[in-house]
Amino acid sequence: MALIQCDFFSETLGLSSSMNVILPQSAPSQIGMDSKAGHAQAKHKTLYLLHGLSDDHSIWLRRTSIERYVSSLGIAVVMPAVHRSYYADMAAGGNYWTFISEELPAIARSFFPLSDRREDNFVAGLSMGGYGAFKLALNKPDQYAAAASLSGALDAAKLAARMPDLANQIFGAGNGANEVPNNLFLAADTLVQSDSSIPLLYQCCGTEDFLYEDNIRFREHAKQLGLPLAYEEGPGEHEWGYWDKQIQRVLEWLPL
């Protein structure tokens, strides 16, 4: 595998940004790694892997063995920085929804041999990143074949109760958290009423996680709508030991 630490300028944000990118490499002589698969592809299948509220683009590499986990899968992994944006066009901040949903994939594909086919693109994330992953899948179903949320902060309106100052910065003092694209429940309603193909969804959460009840509510809403949702739960808190195990489950589940 190749690891690229990429700094670039975002026209959408008006500032320099960063992403880490893992690319498949044929390296059969590399000790301790299975880096054989996918190297012959002209354009790589891609997993966009999103970070949580207190993290950045380096966190998946620092807290898990994601590079080793994907080495035999022939898939690229793009890990962007979005700061504390909730993957939104912020009321008092950058347009991170436009950045993550439009500009970032275009920039990544201009730099690296990444496929733009829907069936080759997936998104996953933890906590705030789980919200971001489902936000992309539900609002941009033509771009992603599958999405996974690990302990996702799936109810944007709850942010106002937990962190009112941050919520005002992100969604404004109005009702932005309860509107599409920010409200995942409404985004799911809108998707099932459209003619768009619905991405496969994977959701997991630890039963001791403070976001467990939020996840149960979204699971039940998805079931009522008939969304193709695979759900798993078990003992676990909001911590990296749980996410390190579950990202391996996500990679097994992805339709590669």
TrEMBL record:
One GO molecular-function entry: hydrolase activity
Keyword entries, A-Z: Hydrolase
InterPro entries for the chain: AB_hydrolase_fold (IPR029058), Esterase-like (IPR000801), Mycobacterial_A85_antigen (IPR050583)
Protein name: S-formylglutathione hydrolase FrmB
